[in-house]
Amino acid sequence: MIPNILRKLFRRRHGYPPKRDEFGQSARKRALQAFERGRSPEQVASETGISLKTARRYFYSSKKLPSGLEAQYSMLKYLLKHRPVFKQRFVETIAHKRGMSVPEVTVRLQRPWGLKELLMGKWPDYIDEKRQREAQANIDAALDFVRLMESCGMSPEELRLKVQESMKRALNKRRAEQTEQQSKPDHSEK
Length: 190
Description:
This protein is mainly alpha-helical. It has three domains: 16-64, Arc Repressor Mutant, subunit A, CATH 1.10.10; 69-124, no CATH class; 127-179, no CATH class. It has ten helices and no strands. The mean pLDDT is 78.
């Protein structure tokens, strides 16, 4: 039994190189593009030289992908590789929209399948997490306020009135400072 397990763990897998055409495109990429044009697995198998079983597997995997993914991926990959200004703006835009840092977006794009994961919507959206952190901070502040109220021995109504009074005083003080600044003559122009 143990030799069977070891044999399964250490067996050699065949790593067939991808079939490429004269333009360097893999059979999988050509098959996905053909499926986007409405071809059937049988037609794709005969056109690309892959087995019907493989063509069907590619077909079912293509149904899970957004339409036009291969075309978008090819175009973006080319632009990111050959247009540095576009790459910089693209990375900054993605960072802003996703609530991520620019270096983090750059690292994610450099990973294998990073760009495809982005196009397929599999990148995390940190903006929602940021809102959750802010909401949690507000809840924590409210709990701190309740603890303060309990430690002072005040009722919620008394504490509310004291907070309102202090806010009114701060507002009146700010208004007084503003009127004082407006009433002073401006001596900066000579």
